Structures are given as structure tokens and as C-alpha cells.
Amino acid sequence: MCPTFCETWYQTCREEYFVGRANNEIVPCNNDVGCEPVQFMVQDAQDFCESAFSNFHTIEVANPADEPDLCFDGVPASRTKKGEKVT
Predict the structure, then answer these.
(1) Where are the beta strands (DSSP E) in 3-51?
(2) CB 42 within 8 A of CB 6
(3) pLDDT tens-digit profile of 29-78?
(4) How far apart are CA 16 and CA 35, in angstroms?
(5) How many Å apart are CA 23 and CA 8, to the nearest integer?
(6) C-alpha distance from residue 49 to each of 35, 45, 57, 67, 80 (Å)
(7) Residue 80 has pLDDT above 60, yes or no
(8) Which of 25, 47, 61, 87 is the most buried (most CB within 10 A)?
């Protein structure tokens, strides 16, 4: 995942309530005990992106130098052409 996409995801969710699960996984709160805003559960955007739903799918935040061509930036692959986004 591209660092700027990760940061955007974190900023969008930082005040949303999540709950911690096994193996440092965090998931959205569903009337669970122990819910709190995600900004108090993680250190930064990278920690959020790598912890969210981690028991379901491992997410790694790419090196900023790999952006935008070597990481997922939120745009489906079918919408890109030769490394450039199609608008």
C-alpha cells in the first residue's frame, strides 16, 4: 500500500471506534466492549494500516520511494495505463 493512501485511510478513520483483537489486529467496533477511537490505539498511519484486519489480510506499507508505481494507491489496476492513472 502506498504511504499517502495509508495516511488518507488513517485520517479518514482516526476518530472511528475500533476494538483490538488477537495478534494486534484492530477491527471496527460492533458494540464490542473495549472500543475506542483508533487514534488512541495505534502510533501512526503505518501502524493503523498494518494492524487493521491483519488476521484477514496482511498489509504492508511501501517505501515512499516506491510511490506511486510500485504500490497500491487506491486506484483499481483496470483504471491505470502504463503507470499513469486514467481519469
Answers:
(1) 17-20, 26-28, 36-37
(2) no
(3) 988 888 999 999 999 999 998 888 876 777 788 888 888 788 888 887 66
(4) 9
(5) 24
(6) 18, 6, 11, 16, 23
(7) no
(8) 61
- pTM of the predicted model as reported, rounded to 2 decimal places: 0.74
- What is the spatial distance between Cα 42 and Cα 47, in angstroms, rounded to a whole number? 6
* Count of domains observed in the chain: 1
Give the whole-angstrom CA distance, residue 65 versus residue 3: 10
Q: How many residues does the chain have?
A: 87
Collapsing DSSP to helix, strand or coil, 10 comes out as helix
Q: Which domain holds residue 78?
A: 3-85
The maximal CA–CA distance of the chain, rounded, in angstroms, is 47
